[in-house]
Write a structure and sequence with these properties.
Helix content is about 85%, strand content about 0%. It is built from 2 helices and no strands.
Length: about 90
């Protein structure tokens, strides 16, 4: 995938995150009102759950960085092989 498509995928993801945040923010007053009417409290996330979520996100970032670095090395080897007139595996 070339850089333009990678950028497009990145920005589409960011746009989705922003749209989700905007929708949640707009619906927050309605959610609070509905919870008041039904008598259901908003459940706060426990610190342990937050830590687990952060660890999972860090593992995902690590895997993504590892994959990107492997692709960069593979691409550099391929270009070097083409430059030298052969194929490097």
């Amino acid at each position: 995938m070339n850089k333009h498509f990678e950028d497009a995928v990145y920005y589409l993801g960011r746009a989705g995150e922003h749209a989700k945040a905007g929708v949640l923010e707009e619906l927050e007053p309605a959610e609070h009102r509905l919870r008041e009417l039904t008598g259901r409290e908003i459940e706060e996330e426990s610190p342990d759950g937050r830590i687990d979520r952060i660890r999972a996100e860090l593992r995902a970032v690590e895997r993504r960085a590892e994959g990107e670095s492997k692709r960069a090395v593979r691409s550099a080897r391929q270009r070097l092989g083409e430059y030298r007139g052969g194929s490097v595996e």
